[in-house]
Amino acid sequence: MKKLAILAISALALTGCSAQDITLVRLAAHDSFVISDELVAEFESQTGYELEIIRLGDTGSLTNQLVLTTNAPVADAFFGIDNTFAGVATDNNIVDGEMQAIDYGDVCFNYDLDWFAESSIAPPTSWRELGQDQYESLVVVTNPNFSSPGLAFLATTHAGFETSAEVSDYWRSLKDNNLKVAAGWEDAYFVDFTRYGGDRPIVLSYASSPSAEVKEDGTPGSAALRTECFRQIEYAGVLDNADNAPGARAIVEFLLGDSFQASVPENMYVYPINEAIEVPEAWAKFAQPADSLLGEASDINANRDQWLADWSDVFDN
């Protein structure tokens, strides 16, 4: 019995040592997350941890995968669950402690200035016009089941109309106008948008996205419809049951630090949560925040299932 007790104590001691000696920290993120090699090196030098990025698709896919692996998480920390999906994370208790806001952007439609200049069609002035005949086959959005911009715009339409019937009528007008629904933001923007060789000159994106489309001569390539938008806030946090909780806390703190925050505008084309960080000068011209906002994240969490069911009734039938 003494020998067994000694072996058990030894095993516990070894387990404790191995947990303390973990040097790898895994960060789960959506596919649009960008961190430079220089920033990775800075984090690793400052903390002694090795950083591994695990990409899990769009925001909805990221959130759903983290929920499915709650008991054996695929990462230690996460970046990219936003206020449209934060309720799912909270309801499923996947976060250890509080989520920390890292950046924000205003979800709205962008349009290709050159395409409209070369056509005989006037660009829209509001998302409410996109069901009109002149915009047939010109618009791409993202699927609200998987994409946070898609879900944000779904919330915007519910905030913009008084009844669910009006919302359904609006979405049917888009469907009848040959709206394209892409799986995620990257597909919609970099595949379907005419700025990148696609055939859709109107894309659901962000008020800050035109800052990425400034041409060599300093003129804008796209513009945003900056009224009645949805403010999306992205979070980072420590995952419950993380193998390396201290490392997870370290990477979350790094994402809040000045070095990473200063990289957010040019790398991800959204605003850093730290208002003291200076954004690029061109943003004052081409990437201003929205003039007006619609929709609340709390409404999304309360109505998600019904809204998505109603959306499916329009697009799956």
Output the keywords.
10 strands, single chain, ten-stranded mixed β-sheet, 20% strand, 317 residues, alpha/beta, disordered N terminus
What's a quick, concise take on this entry?
The protein has 317 residues and is α/β, with parallel strands linked by helices. The protein contains twelve helices and ten strands. The radius of gyration is 22 Å and the shape is globular.
Structure, explained:
The structure is a single chain. With 317 residues, the protein is α/β, with parallel strands linked by helices. It is 42% helix and 20% strand. The chain contains 12 helices and 10 strands. Strands 1, 2, 3, 4, 5, 6, 7, 8, 9 and 10 form a 10-stranded mixed β-sheet that branches. Strand 1, helix 2 and strand 2 (50-55) form a beta-alpha-beta unit. Helix 7 packs across helix 12 (297-315). The protein is globular.
Q: Report the strand count.
A: 10
Q: How many individual helices?
A: 12
Helix share, percent = 40-55%
Sketch the topology as an H/E string, one letter per element. HEHEHEHEHEHHEHEEEHHEHH
The gyration radius over C-alpha positions equals: 22 Å
- Give the strand content: 15-25%
Topology, please?
Layout: H1 2-20, E1 24-29, H2 37-47, E2 50-55, H3 59-68, E3 77-82, H4 86-91, E4 95-112, H5 113-118, E5 139-142, H6 148-160, H7 164-176, E6 180-182, H8 185-192, E7 202-206, E8 222-224, E9 230-239, H9 245-256, H10 258-268, E10 271-272, H11 283-286, H12 297-315
Parallel strand pairs: 1-2, 1-3, 5-6, 5-7
Antiparallel strand pairs: 3-9, 4-7, 4-8, 4-9, 4-10
